[in-house]
Request: fold
Amino acid sequence: MVQEIIKYPTPPSVEYGTDVRNFNEDIFSLIEDLKDTINANNLEALAAFQIGSYFNVVVIKEEDGTFLELINPRLISTKDKITTIETTAYFPNRSAEIQRHDAISIIYQDRDATQCSLKASGARSVLIQRKLDYNFGATFLSKLSKQEKAKFEKQLEFGSDIVISESCPTTFKRDYFVKASNILLIAMVLLLGASFFVSDAIHSGMWNIQLTLSLVALVTNIGYFFYAHYEAKLYTSCVSCQSGNIIGTTLIALVKIVVITIVSYFLI
Reply:
């Protein structure tokens, strides 16, 4: 009987697949359900977890249309590494770059409870490893590097297989303008404070310095405003959400410059 395939965001129902102890009609029926579901969805293989069963069972469809039944499979050796672009029924229409073992050896039991062994390499090795992941309550998300995991989670957030360069970064080159502006503002405040501790004869020179600092700060913030909008356009997902932040940051900085300059005019 064709079963519904578990898909994201339904969480894994088990942490580890339970080994089959009784090779009875319930297990054979589960295997037939896996075969029917594979055929109905044009898949290469399924783990029992993918149709809601907690048993450690995997069924793989061979090129000739027959099926390989893996009951209680265990990975016993691995060799070399291979990087692949994988898709999975759990995350429909999603793909990710995964590092796998290029060659593996496994042991398993058939439906007669006979102990068997199998060696696989290349695409077949990757397919088996993917199905074994499910029997540990995992998906290929657990195999991703930190960078690839962040990319894949962004895909899930936006609801499409987007390229990571299209996602909005957390740091920008325009931040250097903000840092420079803050340093200039701090210098202006310190200069204003120092004016209380010097003679009136020095105030004229201090005012000229303050005016210069305010002009440099003004130019820095104007530069920030235009460059920030240019940089935001490099990321199509950032334009709308960042525009308000850019305007707000610029206005706040300009208000600070004007206030400090006016106060300095009357006190220095």
Confidence is low (pLDDT under 50) at residues 162-167. The longest strand covers residues 67-88. The chain has six helices and five strands.
